[in-house]
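Marked as duplicate of an earlier ticket. Keeping the data here for the record.
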Amino acid sequence: MSKVRLSKSELARQRNQLQLYQRLLPSLDLKRQQLSAEYKKAQQELEQRRQSVKQLEGRIGEELPMLAYREIDLSGLVRMTAFELGEENVVGVRLPILRAIACEVSRYSYLAKPSWVDVLVDRLKQVAEERTHVLVAEERVKILKQQVRRVTQRVNLFERILIPEAKENIQRILIVLGDMERQAVARSKLTKAKQKDRSMEALTR
């Protein structure tokens, strides 16, 4: 605990600080709760995106069992070339959102390739987009986790350190000032008693 001056001005300063901490704490705690809720939502969204990728990949296998045959070269058929990110403000935190992606399809002969390759191209585009959604969702979770930790640290600082310390400082100052006031009263009484004794002595001479 830092040293405090045991004076009335310091008492006023500590009381003002305590009022400030107590006024700020509810809003900080509310923000922590809101961020925690958004963090849980982001985690759920990430899990849903991951499941979506698995489902799409499984769907490709179900719809196109002919992929098991290696006679047809499908390597490099679809690749993502670009994506566009935006931002949204969630409880004062800027989070990325995926606006669009661009995929490039390798040229292939419609005569040399079977018709189901067109379906495969569509599915691979969907997988590429959903995988990019997963990356963005992971970044959102990471950012929100950091923000929840930061605000929680501030709430703990107020609850466990600043407010108790201010209260203890106020109590210490009040005790010292009370002792000083009692001592001043006692000295005043003693001085008056001595003056009265001297007056009595003067009258009896």
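See parent ticket for discussion. Residues 26-151 form one domain.
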